[in-house]
Design goal:
The complex is a heterodimer of chains A (110) and B (155). Chain A is of the alpha+beta class and 110 residues long. In chain A, 16% of the residues lie in helices and 30% in strands. Chain A has two helices and seven strands. The termini of chain B are far apart. Chain B has one domain (9-139): Aldehyde Oxidoreductase, domain 3 (Alpha-Beta Complex). Chain B has helices at 21-28, 61-78, 110-127, and strands at 10-15, 35-42, 46-47, 50-51, 54-59, 85-90, 92-95, 99-107, 130-135, 140-142. Chain B has three helices and ten strands. The chains are: A alpha+beta (110), B alpha+beta (155). Chain A: Residues 1-11 have a biased composition (Basic residues).
Chain lengths: 110, 155
């Protein structure tokens, strides 16, 4: 469930563009911040406009542009995209409007 | 009741009120089970020589519930005789010695429920998006489970 290097997923190309052009189309996603990331960002949730096709690392970089202090925890976070864990790396995400993207610092439940 | 009416159930709750061992164990009791195994996670009053005043928990609630459901599904695959599973986790402020998590599992014989409870807490610590903040006298610290593969092990 949590193995690194999850398989690449490619979704359908956006209408009127080839798969390689899908990156310029933007969509609005809900970004959720938890624990230390909420302290660094200064908020718990917001809507951001990001490219629909984007790697998880590129998505992180988009979010750090908005909240530079998040760079402090770059080595210790993963994402949850549509409630599935995603490492920061070259996994290609195909985002839908309204998708939840959560910043997940190291967990400590139990 | 007939055993076919005692359908296996998962009881998952994240709440800010005090947890109850009685309540959680009663949820999983079954006339077809000879064993109820429990794990209770409580708050300690010290960490590395610092006095812990209390703990605070927060969660990505919808995903935490989904991840706990996955754990229950895994338990049932590994230990098919398990009857009921209850996982209650507290959110918000948890005073010292109070329970932050209670896990209860029932099964006809004890081996399965004992193993399933251990699997539940170990996997919860590795995969459920819940965070704990330890509040000390002069500072606080976000904890990181060693089971969490994206935590830095060296600090």
């Amino acid at each position: 469930r949590l193995s690194p290097g999850r398989r690449r997923r490619r979704g359908p190309a956006a209408e009127g563009s080839s798969p390689r052009d899908g990156g310029f189309m933007l969509c609005q996603v809900s970004v959720l911040y938890f624990a230390r990331s909420a302290e660094l960002a200064g908020l718990r949730c917001e809507t951001l406009s990001v490219p629909r096709e984007i790697t998880s690392l590129q998505l992180w970089e988009e979010i750090v542009k908005v909240h530079p202090r998040l760079a402090l925890i770059r080595d210790q976070v993963v994402f949850a995209v549509r409630q599935e864990y995603v490492l920061l790396g070259d996994q290609l995400l195909v985002l839908q409007p309204g998708d939840e993207v959560a910043i997940i610092p190291p967990i400590s439940g139990g | 009741m007939e055993e076919s009416e005692d359908v296996p159930k998962d009881f998952i709750k994240l709440k800010s009120e005090k947890l109850s061992v009685d309540e959680v164990s009663q949820l999983v009791v079954s006339p077809y089970c000879g064993a109820v195994s429990l794990f209770v996670g409580t708050t300690r009053n010290n960490f590395e020589g610092k006095r812990v005043i209390h703990l605070e928990y927060e969660a990505y609630i919808s995903m935490a519930e989904t991840e706990i459901k996955k754990i229950c599904r895994d338990v049932r695959e590994k230990w098919p005789s398990v009857k009921h599973i209850a996982v209650h986790h507290r959110l918000g402020v948890v005073p010292i010695t109070e329970a932050s998590v209670i896990i209860a599992v029932s099964s006809p014989h004890r081996a399965e429920s004992l193993e399933a409870v251990m699997y539940c807490i170990n996997t919860l610590k590795a995969s459920v998006p819940i965070w704990k903040k330890e509040i000390y006298e002069d500072e606080y610290s976000w904890k990181e489970n060693k089971e969490c593969f994206w935590a830095n092990s060296e600090k």
